[in-house]
Structures
1.
Amino acid sequence: MIDEQLAVSSPEAESRVLGACLMATPAHDPVAEAARFLEDGDLEPANELVWAAIQRLHGASKPTGLPMVEAELRRAGELERAGGAVRLSQLAMEACGPGEVGYYADLVHGYAALRRYQAALARAVQASRLTAPTDVPEAIRAHQAELDVLALGDGEADAHFGRLGDDLDEHLRMLETPIEAAAVTGLVDLDHVVKLRSGNIVVVAGRPGMGKSALTLGIALANAASGRPTLVHSMEMGKPEVLNRVLAARARVGLHHLMDGGPAIEDGDWTRMVRVLPELSALPLWMDYAARLTPSRVRHRIKALTREAGRSPLVIIDYLQLMYTDQRNSRQSPYERVSEISRELKVIAEETGAVIICCAQLNRGSEHREGKRPAVSDLRDSGQIEQDASVIILLHREDYYEPTSEHAGEVDLIVGKNRNGVTTTVTVAHQLHFARIRDMAREDG
């Protein structure tokens, strides 16, 4: 039954569109109208060759009449595969009227979309037969990712296409209103330097022990406290560890007390924790502790939260190199895997309007450098991360290497890339015994 459905097409509609292009005149050019609807692969193979030849000629500002298309196909050695000169003549005879090209081209594209949808369903059925019971959620997410791409179609591309001048007046009106940041870090100096805008990818990178998780979890808490929806994907730490860090940071309870539990937690600790519970319970902060995180899962969570909260969330991913791709390709190298994930997250951020902050590991390059200060080039596994990120923040603690340093208790947030601002260094204070990072001049309440 599926095989029969996969044959769905409209040869008549394809012939009418191509015939109209072959009968084009200087007064009426149907190629541009057809191109508004047709995508690669929409037509049957022989017709696809004819359409490609028409597009090449049209792109070179040459006529697309029957003689020119025949000559172009002959030059490319594709005339016989396209059905020969007789077939081209038949297409010209079946041309639709000038005002009907858009209608028939849209119909052709609709049939092609239906074929792709049916093919996706067929692949899902086949995959389900080969899927182990423990892998069902992953299989569903992979299928959902494919359906998301099909549902998006080409309408999104059309929405982003137009003349520059058409947008200038509206843009000037938008500039009259101050642009509000889509998310905040809770660190005054950092918020002044880095404006978190919708669609941004921010990478927070450092060697182990520098405070990446403390910084990003603090950003999540601060953003949620401002009333903005926030989502944290924690792959490196499980639920108990994350909750201990949240309580330590918000209640100013020693993290080592909470890690030990029982008698190690003093009466004053309990008092402070109980006091912050109502505030923490009311935060628009969602957690995902799944150890296996893919881009499609991130997209699904963002869309669900956007529907619930009415706006796109700030998303924290801890950390990038632990993610999986949506493709079941065990032969991918770490470089290929991280590159694919980075590209997908960038698409998701732009598509949903979310701000995505990714923790990332650095290689050992900085540890062989004088002063051990990290650089953007130290990002591990992929240069694609550097290319896709709007902002890259590198963490450096001098007291990690020299405990007696005069800068003990400080963390340098090195803004190594800032697409819409300056690159600089913001120095903040770390209180890692409370699992938090604060502004240098901030007074505790």
2.
Amino acid sequence: MLRRLLLLCALLAVLPLLVSFRLQPATAGHEALLYDVRAAFVAARSDVPAVLVTETDRLVNEAILSTIRQRVLPRTILTIRIDRLVSRPTILGGKRAATVSVEAVAVGNGEVIAEGSFDLSVFSLRRDAVDLLLAERIAARIASEFRLAGEPRSTLAIALFPGR
């Protein structure tokens, strides 16, 4: 019992020090792994709805076209694959989950210079809108990762409080 009390007191004494300790990001002052993305291509198996593929392609390419880089960066093309798409049963609306992999291919020599994958899931009260919502989420994630200047979609908060 005394041992637990001493351990608890030691933990409480050290906790403020651990909470206040922060490492500075290694990329402070410069942008690491940033590319001048020139185009994107979205591919998927035949069982993935065509609207999901075309809408994702359109949204990512819109973000690419609206991005302006102030300095010279390695030029790349993104290859986006929707590897797995799962429809989850719901009582109301629809839910989809997808696994997406992205490769950044160098324009000069065709070499893959970066690759990664991520999982996303969406829920919509309208079953017919779930693919469009998933496409928006995929495009937003890619735009965020590659710092593309995609136009943010309007939400209820933006409609109620414009200019904030």
